[in-house]
Amino acid sequence: MEIIGFVASIAIGIALGLIGGGGSILTVPVLVYLFHIDPVLATGYSLFIVGLTSAIGSINYFKKGLVNMKTALVFGIPSIIAVFSTRAFIVPAIPNEVFHFGDVVVTKSLMLMLLFAVLMIAASYSMIKKDKESKQEEPGEQSFNYPLIFVEGLVVGVLTGLVGAGGGFLIIPALVMLSKLPMKEAVGTSLVIIAAKSLIGFFGEGGEGIIDWTFLFKVSAFAIVGIFIGSALSKRINGATLKPAFGWFVLVMGVYIILKETIL
Q1: Coil, strand or helix: which one is 124?
Q2: Bridge-partner residues for 178, per DSSP?
Q3: Could you tell me which residues are beta bridge partners of residue 97?
Q4: Residues 148-164: pLDDT tens digits?
């Protein structure tokens, strides 16, 4: 099962490198179901893996001049504050038994996995639907809708802190629509934002649990190999054509998690 887990870790990186987002949504299921990591700890581990992989993946975009640092700061600062606060204060404050529903006890782990599954389904919709904004590749005059960007940054930061996903499927459309960035520049800028908020969020963990650094670096190394493979494949394969198929896969995974955690 561990071998399958490391292969799946490569797939996470390939998805990030090929379609620019969505790959990190697989990290927590891989950690929980293939490596048998506790869901709460898995959300923290995911932040490190996603953050480090995104940081490495963003280097190529920096070289090509496809990272807009002004946008990264405007969107990233509220997001970083939110994810750090969530991991440092909100997650530790959630009780192990959140509430009772009849004879069913909804635990902290169950709640986070169900929230994660709902997020996967939302992510799948954003990947399956056709992108209308991709036609406009020419950068226009950049403008910022500051209130919406601030709110979006906070929401993405809280979700990232709770479930450990990078949130690229939320960030990229926001950068295109709210900051008027071309798609490729939005992908590069998104990777920088994901790297910063995920790594800072991980170190805002609050000291819960013992961190297995050897395991973390192993999984991260496989994901980094994957992102280089994905970036190389993106020169030959149009990631946009694979995005809907990957979206359907994420949808199936989201539904499976809900069924497994509640019925199976």
Answers
A1: helix
A2: none
A3: 107
A4: 878 888 888 888 888 77
